[in-house]
Amino acid sequence: xxxxxHLTFILLSVFSFVGRVILSETHPAILKQKALKIAPHVIxxxxxxxxxTLVFQGGWLGADFGWIVAKIIALLGYIGLxxxxxxxxxxxxxxxxxxxxxxxxxxxxxxxxxxxxxFI
Length: 120
What we know:
This protein has 120 residues and is mainly α. The chain folds into 2 domains: 1-59; 61-120. The chain contains 4 helices and no strands. Helix 1 (2-26) runs antiparallel to helix 2 and helix 3 (66-87) runs antiparallel to helix 4. It is globular and about 45 Å long. 14% of the residues are buried.
């Protein structure tokens, strides 16, 4: 059950991120609404809590589970690039956006394959 909540929050988080980027380009005034400022933080917090719950339920804290560490590092990259996206304009924004999406795809592939070095 937690897995399905986690998957739902993943989709909500990505759609929220992409939606905010689109809105910031087309209708930036809408992003000043209180609900649109708070909702992404709530979604991402629930995503993180469900992910941590899955780690403990799955017993994935041992040294054999380096893929979890890779996901956490990629998540930090995704967050950092997301901050750059939301605070900048122009080329920097779009390079950071595609970098953030690459981190998201990497996290997803690692989650499915349980292999941080799937590309080797």
